[in-house]
Write a structure and sequence with these properties.
four-stranded antiparallel beta sheet, 2 helices
C-alpha cells in the first residue's frame, strides 16, 4: 500500500483495535476490516477535511468520514489519537476560526460524540493511559511569537478544563506510561517542559541545547518526543540536528546519549514492546530504527515518498509509516515488515 486514493496530506495514523477483542468479546463495528489484517487504519486527510478508513491488507480506502464545520474553507485534520480502550478517537482541527477544536469520534460507527474549542492551531495530542485526559499542543502556527499553551481536555466529557502556558510553538508531546506526567517540547524555544497530572501545571523545565550548540549557534528544534516503556528515558528528536538525544527523566537537562539519524527527525514512536524507536527522517525521505537496549541504529531505510511524518503499529506487528503530500506528490502510507524493515509492495 503506497498511495492513498486522493492527493491528500496523510498525517497521523490511528489504529482502531478494540479492547473488547482482547477480552474475548465481539469487536465493535468499524474496528475490523474484511481483509486478512483484521483491523483498519484511521488516516487524517488534511486537505479534504476527512478521515479515511483504510484496509491495510488491500490498501483500499473503505470509506471517508467528513469532518469540519465550514463548507468554504479547508479547516485541516491535523492529529489523530486513539483512546486506550479503542472505542473512540480524537482528532484536532487546526485551522478553525478563531481557535482550533478537538473532536471525539466513535470507532464503531463513525459518529461525532462531542467537540470542544482549544487554542490556536492545535497540532499534536497525547492521551493518558486511563483515557481520562487528552493533552493538545496549541502550536499557534500563524500567530505572533508568544507563550503558547497546551490544552487539557477531560476526555469523557470533552471539556477543556485548562490551558497551560508552556513556551513558543509546542509540538512534541508524550504522556508517561505510569500516568503521572506529560512532556512537551517547544520548537522555537528549544525547551522541554514536564506537566504534572496531579496539579495540571508545569513542574520542571530544561533546555534541549548542549553547550556545543550554544557555542556554535546551533538549535535543536525538538519536533518530537518519545518515552521508554519504563518512563526512565526521554527521547528528543532534534529536527535541525539530525539526531535523537537521550535524557533521563529523573535528571532533565542531562544528556546521556546522542544517536545520529537522518535529516529532519520528526514525530518519533516507540514500538508497543518498548524495544525499538522508529524515527521518520522528514528531510531525507527515509526512516531510522534504533535498538533501545543498546541505542545502536539497526537500519536506515528509504521511504516510498517524501516527508515521512510518523508511525503506528498493527496488533500483528506490522509497522505503518505515513508521509505528507508535497506539491503534486500525494500522501502515502508505507507498510513495513518489522523483521526485515523492508517496505511491502
Amino acid at each position: 500500500m503506497s498511495r492513498p486514493s486522493t492527493i491528500v496530506l496523510a498525517l497521523l495514523i490511528g489504529l482502531a483495535t478494540a479492547a473488547s477483542e482482547a477480552a474475548g468479546q465481539e469487536p465493535a463495528a468499524g474496528t475490523t476490516s474484511d481483509g486478512a489484517s483484521g483491523y483498519v487504519l484511521f488516516v487524517g486527510l488534511e486537505s479534504e477535511d476527512a478521515v479515511a478508513i483504510v484496509d491495510p491488507a488491500s490498501g483500499e480506502v473503505v470509506r471517508k468520514i467528513p469532518v469540519g464545520v465550514s463548507t468554504e474553507d479547508i479547516e485541516g485534520v491535523h492529529a489523530l489519537t486513539l483512546a486506550p480502550d479503542g472505542r473512540h478517537y480524537y482528532l484536532s482541527i487546526a485551522h478553525g476560526w478563531p481557535y482550533g477544536s478537538v473532536w471525539k469520534m466513535t470507532t464503531s460507527d463513525d459518529k461525532l460524540v462531542a467537540r470542544t474549542n482549544v487554542g490556536l492551531f492545535p497540532a499534536t495530542s497525547a492521551i493518558t493511559p486511563d483515557g481520562m485526559w487528552l493533552f493538545v499542543a496549541n502550536y499557534n502556527l500563524h500567530g505572533d511569537p508568544q507563550t503558547d499553551t497546551v490544552s487539557v481536555v477531560h476526555a469523557p466529557t470533552m471539556t477543556e478544563v485548562k490551558q497551560i502556558p508552556v513556551c513558543t510553538k509546542p509540538h512534541g508531546l508524550v504522556a508517561s506510561n505510569d500516568g503521572s506526567s506529560v512532556y512537551v517540547s517547544c520548537t522555537r524555544d528549544n525547551v522541554l517542559k514536564r506537566i504534572s497530572l496531579s496539579t495540571l501545571s508545569v513542574v520542571d523545565s530544561t533546555s534541549t541545547l548542549t553547550e556545543a550548540d550554544r557555542a556554535e549557534g546551533k538549535v535543536c528544534y525538538p519536533a518530537g518526543l518519545a518515552l521508554s516503556k519504563d518512563d526512565r528515558r526521554l527521547y528528543v528528536a532534534c529536527h535541525r540536528h539530525a539526531e535523537i538525544r537521550v535524557m533521563p527523566t529523573d535528571r532533565l537537562g542531562t544528556f546521556t546519549d546522542a544517536i545520529p539519524v537522518g535529516d529532519g527527525p520528526y514525530l518519533i514512536k516507540v514500538d508497543p514492546a518498548g524495544e525499538r524507536l522508529y524515527v521518520p527522517n522528514r528531510n531525507s525521505q527515509s526512516f531510522t530504527v534504533i535498538d533501545l537496549a543498546s541505542h545502536n541504529v539497526i537500519a536506515t531505510k528509504p521511504s516510498s515518498a517524501t516527508h515521512p511524518h510518523t508511525f503506528t503499529f498493527g496488533p500483528d506487528g506490522t509497522v505503518f509509516l505515513s508521509m505528507e503530500s508535497h506539491a503534486v506528490v500525494p500522501g502515502a502510507i508505507d507498510v513495513i515488515d518489522p523483521a526485515t524493515l523492508e517496505t511491502r509492495r
